[in-house]
Design goal:
The complex is a heterodimer of chains A (697) and B (142).
Chain A lengths: L2 H32 L24 H6 L45 H5 L13 H14 L9 H4 L6 E2 L14 H6 L6 H6 L5 E4 L2 E3 L15 E5 L6 H5 L3 H6 L26 E4 L2 E4 L1 E4 L8 E4 L6 E8 L4 H11 E5 L2 H5 L9 E3 L1 E6 L6 E3 L2 H4 L2 E2 L3 E16 L2 E15 L4 E11 L9 E2 L14 E2 L5 H5 L14 E3 L2 E3 L14 E8 L10 H16 L6 E3 L12 E3 L1 E2 L8 E5 L4 E19 L9 E18 L4 E12 L30 H22 L1
Parallel strand pairs in A: 12-16, 15-17, 25-28, 27-29
Antiparallel strand pairs in A: 1-18, 2-3, 2-4, 5-6, 5-10, 7-8, 9-17, 10-11, 12-13, 14-15, 15-16, 19-23, 20-21, 22-29, 23-24, 26-27, 27-28
Chain B lengths: L10 H31 L6 H28 L3 H24 L2 E3 H30 L5
Helix pairs in contact in B: 1-2, 1-4, 2-3, 3-4
Classes of the chains: A alpha+beta (697), B mainly alpha (142).
């Protein structure tokens, strides 16, 4: 073959390939034209970060002598004079590619709606819109009362907030039509979490998941993944392509930062930049983000209804918390109202302004207080800094077409002074309700459990469902277990170490016995005393029930499963003192506690998984341990295992077939001793051999 | 003086190999581009991408040798190169089947590409066997 011809044809094939790429690029251009807003030219940074907290000798001054340049507030900004706000066009909306949700409306559940199992008292229904809704239902079904969890919501896998509209969940009945109009993407989380065969298609900004097979046109979807052979262990990741990783790549992705950075007088819609009013000018609010590596070197706007979870490395002086103090003092978060649509002046009298609420929480978020400068101001000494927030959370409350509250939770801790870099976590969350985030009840699936969401539990004797939805018992809604904090075991009811459905894990921690009078006891009593403390610490002494379904709304009493234990079956613990009472040997002592959750998929539709917990057992394992009198401690292991009850314990592979074939004894002897046989067999055998020989030759 | 020769070259086999050589070029370029696209956008299990790249390189190498031997044998009316070309069809088809069935993410477009490639293999195999029979049949003994 001529080399030139080959080369020419290869070039032709490349050309064909590029024409395909052009098609993709055209799609990209379409979107780019629509978002023709230049962001970078509008970016500016401030260097007067510490102006407001300058009065007291500040820790960071101690360290840095206030390097002003390094403490930037990168708020961004197009500024408008109050009197000359230009009339902006309500122009083309940015068309994001829509992820088609595929939840199935199971018609058969209609019958369920007509059953009147009222689990809640009518006083629990407190939402006006819901009352209207129920009235409609009552008219059609002639039922006096239908609870909130009606037929549509039973199949709405993304409805995970009780009586609160879930963002981007279009089947959530708690969302008004007005709310649903805000959503660009409708996600049914349950489908994404469990769908085995994904139909991910290459779109302008990567592979988009979730087109249904029957909706795929052959010619339009050549770039769709029709099958993946990813091992089941990492299926969850593959279903959610890492768009952040794609954003770091060279092309074929869309940067969201390039849009909506120009203030428009229109109500917020999904993906809009959130605006603040500062000294008469309008700015957008942004947050740190990693760009080329894990360092927080860039910033990007916080977008409306787009929840974020950013983790990046930063120097102590560049922590986001310092910017937040400044921002919260000088600016107000704004929402466009009807009044501001017609007004030429934009200020808090025409716009809806919201103040920032800064809340200081301890590391695990269990205790929170409003920020008080005198108490909570960060400071450093020679060895460590106090009140440093490495984790912070923006919570935007949106209700009645405006942002009603912005709460920033700073999870503070003490940080060693010598650590050069630290990892900061910034979360952004949106709540479409008029209630505090702490009041909102989160369920763990609808109706079955979803992977990774906490297992719902109840410590009540009865009426578990009512207690779950009762806000006074909110601390004990989810099953917690012993936690390892700094290597030590922390009691299950003092931690937020939730047992997440489907996630197997092992925790090892050291239990330190605090009682000192155990030496007065005899050896066996001392061992039992320590063991009883361990039982209490891990909750083995309590009666705890677990909800069979992720949405306990329809749970009957039998759907609350008591956690059983084999602790009664274990051998009796006994002890003996060794080496002049300096050591205690405990035999049959609890060293391992394992929770075994048996679950099953009870869905009728193959594509939708509804995991139901069938049984929960606690199994304790014992060992002989020796405890020193000086250090009365022992290592505990806590295992959590989720077992699919519908699958066999182990697969038994079929063995190879057993062929019972025996060759005749004289097979390799063409001329047996028997003369009669010789005459009969020799002729055909000889003929066969010669034939083969000549054929080969 | 002149040596007795028989022209046993199969035209159909030659056409198939000729087309296949160009198709291989396109297949190679498209698969590489698709591999880059997938590597950027979807997460691969550990080592899967390297494994697939290795298999793909081996496949391309085998294909080039196969087509080369097939064409050479066909044009020179020699059965030995064609025989080896037939042998090489097996690993080549296995490699294509891997990309058709077992690779980590299979795009719809790859289904089409691999199916066409397998079609080439099947047809070439048939014509190659026919060619070998023809050569054996018409062998001249001097």
């Amino acid at each position: 073959m001529r080399v030139i011809t080959y080369l020419g044809f290869t070039l032709l094939s490349i050309l064909i390939q590029f024409s395909v790429m052009d098609y993709i690029q055209d799609n990209l251009k379409l979107e780019e034209e629509q978002t023709d807003i230049n962001v970078t030219s509008r970016k500016k940074r401030y260097d007067d970060m510490f102006k407001s907290i300058k009065q007291t000798p500040h820790a960071l001054y101690y360290r840095t002598h206030l390097n002003k340049d390094s403490l930037k507030v990168s708020q961004s900004m197009k500024s408008y004079s109050n009197l000359s706000v230009p009339e902006t066009e309500m122009s083309t909306m940015i068309t994001n590619s829509i992820i088609d949700e595929f939840y199935y409306e199971n018609i058969s559940t209609t019958e369920d709606a007509f059953t009147t199992e009222t689990l809640y008292s009518t006083t629990e229904i407190d939402n006006v819109t819901e009352i209207t809704f129920y009235n409609k239902k009552n008219k059609t079904t002639l039922q006096p009362y239908v609870p909130k969890e009606n037929l549509e919501n039973k199949n709405c896998g993304c409805d995970l907030l009780y009586r609160v509209c879930d963002i981007s969940c279009c089947c959530d009945n708690d969302c008004s039509e007005k709310d649903k109009k805000l959503f660009v993407n409708c996600n049914d989380i349950s489908s994404h979490h469990v769908e085995e065969s994904q139909y991910a298609c290459f779109e302008a900004h990567g592979f988009e998941v979730s087109q249904r097979e029957d909706e795929i046109n052959l010619y339009d979807n050549l770039f769709c993944i029709v099958k993946n052979n990813v091992p089941s262990k990492i299926n969850l990741n593959s279903k959610w392509p890492d768009f952040n990783a794609a954003d770091k790549a060279y092309k074929w992705h869309k940067t969201d930062t390039s849009r909506n950075t120009e203030f428009e007088r229109k109500p917020y819609v999904y993906g809009d930049t959130i605006w603040v009013l500062k000294e008469g000018s309008i700015w957008y609010i942004d947050m740190p983000s990693p760009t080329v590596n894990n360092y927080c070197s860039g910033r990007r706007p916080i977008l409306f209804l787009k929840e974020e979870n950013i983790e990046c490395t930063v120097l102590l002086k560049d922590l986001e918390m310092f910017q937040i103090f400044r921002t919260s003092q000088e600016s107000h978060c704004i929402s466009v109202t009807e009044q501001s649509l017609n007004s030429s002046v934009l200020n808090c009298s025409t716009l809806h302004c919201t103040n920032w609420s800064i809340v200081i929480c301890d590391e695990d978020g269990s205790k929170c207080n409003y920020y008080n400068k005198t108490v909570h101001e960060p400071s450093c000494n020679e060895s460590y800094c106090v009140n440093i927030a490495l984790q912070l959370e923006y919570i935007f409350y949106y209700y009645d077409s405006k942002i009603t509250n912005v709460t920033i939770k700073l999870f503070v801790k003490n940080v060693a002074n010598h650590i050069p870099f630290m990892t900061q976590v910034v979360n952004v969350r949106f709540i479409m309700a008029n209630v505090s985030i702490d009041e909102i009840i989160r369920i763990s699936g609808n109706p079955g459990y979803l992977y990774g969401l906490p297992v719902i539990s109840s410590a009540a004797e009865s009426n578990h469902t009512a207690q779950f939805f009762n806000n006074t018992y909110r601390q004990k809604r989810y099953l917690t277990q012993l936690d390892n904090i700094d290597g030590l075991c922390v009691s299950y009811n003092k931690t937020v170490n939730f047992v997440d459905f489907g996630i197997n894990k092992r925790i090892k921690c050291r239990y330190i016995h605090s009682k000192t009078d155990w030496l007065k006891l005899n050896s066996t009593d001392a061992c039992e005393d320590i063991e009883n403390q361990i039982k209490q610490l891990s909750g083995l002494t309590e009666k705890i029930y677990v909800s069979a379904l992720g949405n306990p709304a329809d749970n009957k009493e039998k759907d609350w499963i008591l956690i059983t234990s084999n602790i009664q079956e274990k051998d009796v613990t006994y002890g003996q003192f060794l080496a002049n009472n300096s050591r205690l040997r405990c035999n049959n002592f609890i060293v391992r506690i394992s929770y075994v959750f048996t679950f099953a998929d009870v869905s009728e539709v193959v594509t939708k998984r509804e995991y139901k917990i069938i049984a929960v057992n606690t199994e304790v394992a014992t060992h002989n341990v020796t405890i020193s009198a000086e250090d009365v401690s022992t290592v505990l292991t806590i295992d959590t295992n989720f077992v699919d009850g519908t699958k066999p314990k182990e697969y038994e592979y079929a063995g190879g077939p057993h062929l019972n074939i025996y060759l005749p004894k004289d097979f390799f002897f063409p001329f047996p001793s028997d003369a009669n046989c010789t005459n009969k067999l020799s002729v055909p055998l000889m003929t066969l051999c010669f034939t083969i020989y000549y054929q080969i030759k | 003086m002149s040596k007795v020769t028989n022209v046993n070259s199969s035209l159909a086999y030659e056409i198939l190999l000729y087309l296949n050589s160009f198709y291989l070029g396109m297949f190679f370029v498209c698969e590489v581009a698709m591999g880059i696209l997938k590597a950027i956008n979807v997460s691969y299990p550990e080592n899967a991408l390297i494994t697939e790249a290795g298999i793909f390189s081996a496949l391309c190498l085998v294909e080039v040798i196969r087509i080369f031997l097939g064409r050479r044998g066909n044009l020179a009316s020699k059965k030995i190169p064609v025989f080896f070309s037939v042998i090489l069809t097996i690993p080549s088809a296995v490699g294509v089947c891997y990309f058709l069935i077992y690779q980590t993410y299979i795009l719809r477009l790859e289904y089409i590409w691999c199916a066409v490639m397998l079609m080439f293999h099947a047809l070439e195999l048939a014509f190659a066997i026919l060619f070998i029979f023809t050569v054996c049949k018409n062998q001249q003994f001097e």
